[in-house]
Design a protein that fits this description.
The chain has 448 residues and is α/β, with parallel strands linked by helices. The chain has helices at 66-80, 91-102, 112-130, 134-143, 187-207, 227-240, 283-296, 311-321, 337-345, 356-359, 362-374, 392-399, 413-428, and strands spanning 5-14, 20-28, 33-37, 156-163, 176-180, 251-255, 262-263, 273-276, 279-282, 299-303, 326-329, 351-354, 378-382, 404-406. It catalyses: (2R)-2-phosphoglycerate = phosphoenolpyruvate + H2O.
Length: 448
């Protein structure tokens, strides 16, 4: 007989920032318990699924979730007990039940943090019942949505080694400066390169009399204000660690997270002015600035280079820079199929960042990936700044064959857990580890 849910238990735990988050335990009548821990973002898009909190100022400054856990757990148990979780086909109906129970477009009632935890635990329960690796089940589910199959592959880790923006208090407007070992042949060597450059960067910063304290994602947070300074330090560290800066060695990816330095004086949907190190830029001027950085440094990807409501400017940046770098939307798309389709119609990007907790269920996450792939876009799977030791996103990156995963610096347990899971998959399976990676712009591992 197919396993059935016998109870749904939600528990308050802590994330990497010391804030409460949820652990979901799905108890099955077979005696199995499937578990998922839910991350939380600091830099968030306005259209993300709603994250429910208790709002009790006497506990965790209102950020507690013990009340959410009790009420949602009871409601879910009433609705989901008896639900079958034995086959891949059981996942969509369960996710649909979560949406029906919530009754809002963005999980404002049940909570996106509740929904994604249940959905992640459910797919783990099915994978366990089928005795199938999680990444393999994810791959099967994605390919059911596509006309041509995508092969699972081991991704290039994008290590966030310098933190700014909402992830640090150093005055650096751009949020993430990542190293991407695009030209290194094996996953184990890509991870090694990330770790070696990270440690070399620490010494480089110390040599230049910068503080080596850390930001939210384990990267260094030196008191630099100009992106050029951070990029110069990063290139110096790449070279000092014995690697070649660029697409044939170790490239750089940026997440400016422009929502955080966009200023609006008129309508929310109107054009923004952007302030970087006390310098104001109109959108076209900011794109000029990005182009100058691309000319000077080995940058291969720019994520959230513009505000999430500046749609016309997104079309401009793709037209100006899309043949040189990956133009990726995160806050712009929030893993939402409707927003991704709009981006495709308006030619706003050529890549999408995938964060399951932005949208609320695994089924919706895979729908978003499928929409992007059909358009010939690339994708990158991402953690959140408030993380746990849960490794779901590592299996997701392998299963959807996107070839790219960002999970912070190669330091701190909640970050290295994801990279270690990739190493485990590489060791225990025959997942493809393609090399050389063809070109700077490509749907990595995608049969478009």
């Amino acid at each position: 007989m197919s396993p059935q849910i016998s109870d749904v238990e939600l528990q308050e735990i802590l994330d990497s920032r010391g804030n409460p988050t949820l652990r979901v335990n799905l108890h099955l009548d077979t005696g199995l318990t499937a578990t998922a821990d839910v991350p939380s973002g600091a830099s968030t898009g306005s259209e993300e699924a709603v994250e429910r909190r208790d709002g009790d100022p006497a506990r965790y400054q209102g950020r507690g979730v013990v009340g959410v856990a009790a009420s949602a757990g009871a409601a879910l148990s009433r609705r989901l007990v008896g639900t079958r979780l034995g086959a891949a086909e059981d996942l969509r109906p369960l996710d649909d039940q979560l949406r029906d129970l919530d009754g809002t477009p963005n999980f404002a009632s049940l909570g996106g943090n509740v929904a994604i935890g249940v959905s992640m635990a459910a797919i783990r329960a099915v994978a366990d019942n089928l005795r199938t690796p999680l990444w393999q089940l994810i791959n099967w589910l994605l390919n059911e949505r596509l006309e041509r199959p995508v092969q699972p592959i081991l991704p290039v880790p994008h290590f966030n080694v310098i933190n700014g923006g909402a992830h640090a208090s150093n005055g650096l407007a751009f949020q993430e400066f990542m190293i991407a070992p695009l030209g290194i042949s094996r996953l184990a060597d890509r991870v090694r390169a990330g770790a070696e450059i990270y440690h070399t960067l620490r010494q480089t910063l110390a040599d230049h009399q910068y503080d080596v304290g850390l930001g939210d994602e384990g990267g260094f947070a030196p008191a630099v204000h100009r992106p050029e300074t951070a990029l110069t330090l990063l290139v110096e560290a790449i070279k000092a660690a014995g690697y070649e800066p660029g697409p044939d060695g170790v490239a750089i990816a940026l997440d400016p997270a422009a929502n955080s330095f966009a200023q609006r004086s008129t309508m929310p949907s109107g054009p923004a002015t952007y302030v970087v190190d006390n310098t104001s830029y109109e959108a076209d001027e900011l794109i000029d600035y990005y182009e100058q950085l691309i000319d000077q440094f080995p940058i291969w990807s720019i994520e959230d280079g513009l505000d999430e409501n500046d749609w016309d400017a997104w079309s401009l940046i793709l037209h100006r820079l899309g043949d040189r770098v990956q133009i990726m939307g995160d806050d712009l798309f929030v893993t939402n199929t409707g927003r991704i389709r709009r981006g495709i119609r308006q030619s706003c990007a050529n890549s999408v960042l995938i964060k399951p907790n932005q949208v609320g269920t695994v089924s919706q996450t895979l729908d978003a990936v499928a929409v992007a792939y059909r358009a010939g876009w690339t994708a990158m799977v991402s953690h959140r700044s408030g993380e746990t030791a849960d490794t779901f996103v590592a299996d997701l990156a392998v299963g959807i064959g996107c070839g790219q995963l960002k999970s912070g610096a190669p330091a701190r347990g909640e970050r290295t857990a994801k990279y270690n899971r990739l190493l485990e998959i590489a060791h225990d399976s025959d997942v493809a580890d393609p090399y050389p990676l063809p070109g700077r712009l490509r749907p990595i591992g995608v049969s478009a």
